[in-house]
Amino acid sequence: MKQIEKVDKYEAEILQVIKTNNLFSIEDIFAFYSGCCKATFYNNKLNELDSLKRAIDDNKIKTKQSLKNKWYKSENPTLQLALYKSICTDEERKAISMNYQEVTGKDGKELNTTIIVQSQQAKEDDDKL
I need a surface site. Which of 24, 35, 37, 117 has the fewest CB within 10 A? Predict the structure, then answer.
């Protein structure tokens, strides 16, 4: 079997596995599919196929919508709040938030941040000064 035919075969089989098992990530595939190993999967760049990405995204969207429908029908205030937070605007989210802090620089502009990583030896040297 030619390489292209193998890749097409893998793709078709993996698509079926994604749909049948409602998978949400590329890594989940390997728990359900034994037609090729991880190395073969990545060496053949199957992880870059739009068809596989689209199938996984479709599963995520369908599952999120299903959960939102359940939350909508629920009498549980926690679930109702979770639904509201997932569909509200940023302004509405800020209005209901119990702990919201907006951190900006001068005149509302973004802060310029610098992260400094210091080795233990450098820290000890600094402490001696």
Answer: 117
32 Cβ contact partners less than 8 Å away, ≥ 6 residues apart: 17, 20, 21, 23
Tokens of 77: 């205030």
Cα–Cα distance between 6 and 124 in angstroms, integer? Answer: 58
DSSP structural state of residue 112: P
**Dist. CA 1–CA 20, nearest whole Å:** 26
Cα distances (Å, whole numbers) of residue 59 to 8, 11, 63, 87: 21, 17, 6, 19
**Cβ atoms of 83 and 76 closer than 8 Å:** no
pTM exceeds 0.90 = no
CA atoms within 13 A on the CB side of 24: 5
Question: Which amino acid is located at 98 in the chain?
Answer: M
Work out the widest C-alpha separation in the chain, in whole angstroms: 70
Strand, coil or helix: 77: helix
2-48 residue pLDDT tens = 888 999 999 999 999 999 999 999 999 999 999 999 999 999 999 99
